Every structure is written in C-alpha cells, then in structure tokens.
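User: Mind token order:
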Amino acid sequence: VEFRDFFIADELNSLAYSIWTISYFACAYGWNWTSLDTNCEMTGSWAAPLLASLPPWWRLLQCIRRYRDSNETVHLVNGAKYLSSISASMVTGIRRFYPGPTMDILWIVVSTVSSCYTSTWDLKMDWGLFQSNSRNFLLRDEIVFHRWSYYTAASSNVVLRFGWVLNTIGLTLDGRLIGFIVALLEAYRRIQWNFFRLENEHINNCGQFR
C-alpha cells in the first residue's frame, strides 16, 4: 500500500455526505422523482449508513495490510481510528431508526471519541506537529509555511472535526440544510488537511533521502 493509495482513500472519507445521499438519489430515480418525502425518506434506509462507512472500511483494511507488511504497531493504532469512524457512522444510522435519549447519548459519546481520536492523529501523525524540543513551539523543526498558519490550521481542524455538534444545538434550520453545511465544512477541512499532510510527507521523504 503506497502513499497515493491511502491518500485517495482519505479523501473519500470526507465524502460521507455525498455517499450518504447516493441511496436517496437511487430511490428518487426509481420513483421518477415523485413523492420523495414519502417514498425516499433517508432516515428509513439502511443503505445510507452502510455506504457512508465504506471509505473508513477501505482505510482500515489498508492499515491492516500495512501492518502485515511492516509489522509496525502504529498501523493498527491508525486502523483503530477508522474503526471509531465506522462506529460513529453506524450509530448515526441506528439513531435515525431508533431515536431516543439513550441513542442520543450513545451517538454523542461515540462521535466525541471519534473526533478526539481523528483530530489528534491529524495533528500529531499526519502533520507531524508537537515535535518534542522543536524550535517552533508545538510544531516541528522543519516548516514550509508561516508559523501562524499552523496554529490557525490546527485549531480550525479540531473545531471542524466536531462539526457534527451543529446537529445538537437546536438550530432552527432544516436537518438537510445542516447536513449540507457540515459537509461543506468537512470539505474545507480536508482541503486544508491536504496541504499540511503533503508538506509533512515531502519533508519526511527528503529527510530519509527518498
């Protein structure tokens, strides 16, 4: 499994909203785009959460393969990150079928664990920040951009990893609109992530003369 393989798979992980709606469009097409609110209610389909969990499953399998090839435990730790994403996606789907206080609490707990796990991995492993004794506070010795851009990006990345919180604060907006807004925020977060992920990969390759 090469860098390009898991980089593309990571991009797909940010398309959960788009993948989630595939089943809706398939249903709409089947009903000739009529009576969609009745015939194609997204909360009534198991296909949506199952499809949305495919990208993290692919990344989990890639992590297992990399562990088998290298025997480095870090790949299993990374795989657990995607397992937390799968759990969050599935609990979100189950909550739509069986709403209630218990499912709400479970959803918040699982989503919080997943967001904390993924945001920590983003900064420490994917971006290579928090290097001990770095001459750039909380960053790493080798940086390409201005220091303030790392602090800004790191802060916004953590906040945007918790974009799902918008569904819990009682906004007087249609749920579909909130979902679309969360998807846009995730698209921005991923674009931002790409810059620092590629930068860190380039620095590591140069440092190891690859």
